[in-house]
Amino acid sequence: MSLPHSSKMLFREAPQKIAFVAAPTEVAQRSKQKLIERYGDVPFKEAQLVVCLGGDGFLLETLHKVLPYNLPTYGLNCGSVGFLLNPVSDADLLKRLTHAQPTTLHPLRMQAVDQEGKMHEGIAFNDVFVFRQTRQAAKIRIEVDERVRLPELICDGVIVATPAGSTAYNLSAHGPIVPLTADLLPLTPISAFRPRRWRGALLPSSAIVRFTLLESEKRPAAAVADFLEVRNVSEVTIQEDRSQQATILFDPDHGLSERIIAEQFEG
Predict the structure, then answer these.
(1) Percent of the chain at pLDDT exceeding 90
(2) How high is the mean pLDDT of the chain?
């Protein structure tokens, strides 16, 4: 997956038209109000950028909302982890925005067919995964570029992540962390039962991945692309969508590439 991280600043002058959004928490809403009182607020269609106050999950929601407007998003961490956000501080926000550096993300596109034959489409900046719905493990055939690579994986589920999402669910499932510029997609099983020793694969960003649910009526599974969940799927196809992109802004020396490297050295 090509995710260029630029050292160049996006704005030559301090942006004056800012749209503020905040998670429905007291701290995020209070911080948003203070910023609006100081810098004003405009709707997405008039904005130069969006300032998002919340956690990583709320930032992902915001990326989906601003995608049609092609607006860069600068996140301020009012949540817990804040991997995709910048720290909250009393520093001049306009100065921080002027010096912020962009990272461009391309999402995955999921096409999921349910047991009734209906097609569902969604995009994901973090990951697409399939997960069992009942007490029984899922049985999944995995194809890459129309070639069967694993005839049957018995597991709780399986994930395809973006490099940006490789530190999220993928990492919790013991998948590899992938640098942003690696042009790779981690494919990671969730609690694999058979083959027990299979730990997943690293795929080129151009790969087309297809999951076919075996015994899908007996072993139902759901497919999830960020916030879209499709129940009772029979087949799921995943590939990078180069036609769409989102830009996230980071403070200098606080970029996403650096945090992905640092994450690999933390206990």
Answers:
(1) 74
(2) 90
Question: Among the options 56, 92, 114, 251, which is catalytic?
Answer: 56
Which residues are part of a known binding site for NAD(+)? 56-57, 126-127, 156, 164, 167-172
Q: Is the pLDDT of residue 6 over 50?
A: no
Told to judge if 56 belongs to the known catalytic residues of this protein, a careful annotator would answer yes
- Separation of alpha carbons 88 and 65, rounded Å: 22
| AA letter at 216 | S
Give strand pairing partners of 234.
none
- What architecture is the 108-240 domain classified under in CATH? Sandwich (2.60)
Q: How confident is the model at residue 2 (pLDDT cuts 50, 70, 90)?
A: very low
Which part of the chain has CATH 2.60.200.30? 108-240
Q: How many residues does the chain have?
A: 267
> What is the architecture, at CATH level 2, of domain 18-106+245-263?
3-Layer(aba) Sandwich (3.40)
- Binding site: which residues? 56-57, 126-127, 156, 164, 167-172
pTM to 2 decimal places: 0.82
Residue 112's contacts (CB-CB under 8 Å, 6 or more residues apart) are 119, 120, 121, 122, 223, 225, 230, 233, 235, 236, 237
Start and end residues for every CATH 3.40.50.10330 domain found in the chain: 18-106+245-263
